Amino acid sequence: KFRMPTAENLVPIRLDIQFEGQRYKDAFTWNPSDPDNEVVIFAKRTVKDLKLPYAFVTQIAQSIQSQLSDFRAYEGQDMYTGEKIIPIKLDLRVNHTLIKDQFLWDLNNFESDPEEFARTLCKDLGVEDPEVGPAVAFAIREQLYEIAIQSVASARESRLSKKGRRGSDHGSASKASGLSMDLMKLFSFKSSVVRKRKDLDVYEPVVDLLTSEEVDALEAREERHAR
């Protein structure tokens, strides 16, 4: 049944709210089993801590509740099962730190912990900014959530295919099938688990510390793009 393919079944929530000339952006995870009244409590506390106009309470609460409703709509539905190793890609800027990386993730490992993985990654790369780890974990969870949704679509197509309604269309129409890689294909008898030399640069993590001028330029570019 549908759930995040991680030890903790948490929903990635992303907020970007503009109201009365002010903008609030944030990204965090939420336990879908928590009572709904916690959403309003969180919204009120956030508005108070950040000294935002009180009208933001409704905007924040509605955005969180909408995303939780989307997640809960998939609960109870079948997910596609099978050996699936998928690529996770990072391309993040957190404050002055720019981090790029890609790696493989086992969708069938329901004991995986993106937060612990992110802490280990930052430690190995010598990243000192404490905000980078949570951002990396969130980026992983966001991609896993998207793929979990696609896995529901794959399961639905599989059922239709077995009923003879879709025939050979199953798989080709599924984005999840395109993203996932069967273990036997990934590690065939003719290949090695050691990456080829030409692939080393692709999988090598990149961490850059940006100057204040570079950060200002990037933020200005992002603001223009947002507009």
UniProtKB/TrEMBL annotation:
Keywords: Nucleus, Transcription, Transcription regulation. InterPro entries: SNF5. The keyword Transmembrane helix does not apply. GO terms for biological process: chromatin remodeling. GO terms for cellular component: nuclear chromosome. Coiled coil: none annotated. It is found in: Nucleus. Its main location: nucleus. The keyword Ribonucleoprotein does not apply. Pfam families: SNF5. PANTHER family: SNF5. Belongs to the SNF5 family. This is Bushy growth protein. It comes from Arabidopsis thaliana.
